[in-house]
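From the shared-data thread, chain only:
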Amino acid sequence: MSDRAELTRLTNTGNGNGNGTCGEKDCPNVYRTAKGSFLVQGDLANAFTPPSGEGLVEIPEETLREAFRALGW
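Structure, as tokens:
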């Protein structure tokens, strides 16, 4: 797995509302890797059981919108 320093963080507050209350490492976030893939950090979800080796995370819509804005999408 990548070291966090090798990732580009696309979200700043974790909640997308711009209030800056989110800490450095403890919020929903979207990161871009050096090879162009994405990592999502969020609360674990139990919507269904994913295949072995995979997981589900839940993040707010505004966090994704913030990441898309950072990418210019």
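The helical segments are 61-71.
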